[in-house]
Write a structure and sequence with these properties.
Layout: H1 16-19, H2 23-35, E1 41-43, H3 46-52, H4 58-64, E2 69-72, E3 77-80, H5 83-87, H6 96-107, E4 111-112, E5 115-116, H7 121-148, H8 150-156, H9 162-176, H10 183-192, E6 214-218, E7 224-227, E8 243-245
């Protein structure tokens, strides 16, 4: 006598939703997977199910497994949603073993255009779309905050043109489709990279104190002191280390307009005047 055979998911015992089932319901689930046809369709017969799975309650079964099946044929049959993917993977109309399955699924309007018709797929796509919009809005908010913080960042990175690097960074993100959880941290990492060229500093670019001496920051300890024009490009007094001149920030002190497009996707950069 020929007996049909099929794959079984040995990992089901590790899955939380299955572990939480009552023992009677666990038995019913295994019964269901054995009694459905090779297309994953079960002819609803709770009288017979009670005979093999003593102790089950029909209403409880319907509630507990509502995410695992889809009612078809006016409720006379159930289609087990993950059965096809687990048993066959992608169905192929050129595979004779799959053809019978495809014919059954087509009969019950579960197969179209060489693929399964997924229940509630439209709702999932809408949910994913909403999440995408939220992500874009979060990105726009973070980018706008960086724009407002550019003067502070220029002080943190005095040897580079932060405004110019910000524009380059935004272009690079657009070109490469990059997204981040924390855009400010990502931009600061960009500013620290070796490929970011330092701006050559002249005396007219360096900030002075009220007496006219030039302000410089020790690269080793971070102490800022005043130096004359012959000292500012030499070593610091404190650590005998390289001095990082404190640059004037005339452009960065100006407020930059914060704009984003309709999707909240990317900042539309305006040239800083």
């Amino acid at each position: 006598m020929y007996m049909s055979k099929r794959f079984t998911d040995t990992d089901k015992w590790k899955k939380q939703w299955f572990r939480k089932l009552k023992n009677d319901n666990k038995v019913f689930w295994m019964y269901l997977l054995d009694q459905c046809n090779h297309a994953g369709i079960w002819e609803v017969d709770f009288e017979l199910a009670h005979f093999f799975c003593n102790g089950i309650e029909e209403q409880e079964i319907r509630q507990v497994f509502k995410k695992q099946y889809q009612e078809i044929d006016n409720g006379k049959r159930w289609f087990i949603k993950d059965f096809i993917d687990f048993q066959y993977g992608q169905l192929n109309e050129n595979n004779r073993a799959h053809l019978s399955v495809i014919n059954i699924l087509t009969k019950y309007k579960l197969y179209k255009n060489k693929g399964l018709i997924r229940p509630f797929q439209g709702y999932k796509e809408k949910a994913q779309s909403k999440e995408l919009v939220k992500d874009k809005e979060k990105k726009a908010d973070q980018i706008n905050k960086i724009l407002l913080d550019l003067p502070t960042l220029q002080k943190e990175f005095p040897n580079i043109d932060v405004d110019h690097e910000f524009i380059k960074w935004c272009d690079w993100m657009l070109a490469n489709g990059k997204t981040y959880k924390n855009y400010k941290a990502a931009f600061k990492n960009w500013c620290r990279n070796d490929f970011v060229s330092e701006v050559k500093t002249t005396l007219k670019d360096i900030k002075t104190d009220i007496t006219g001496f030039y302000r410089g920051k020790c690269k080793k300890c971070g102490k800022t002191e005043s130096y004359d024009k012959s000292q500012i490009f030499q070593d610091s007094r404190c650590c005998k280390s390289e001095i990082s001149p404190v640059r004037k920030l005339p452009d960065s002190e100006k407020k930059m307009p914060t704009m984003h497009n309709m999707e909240g996707n990317d900042v539309l950069r305006s040239e800083v005047r």
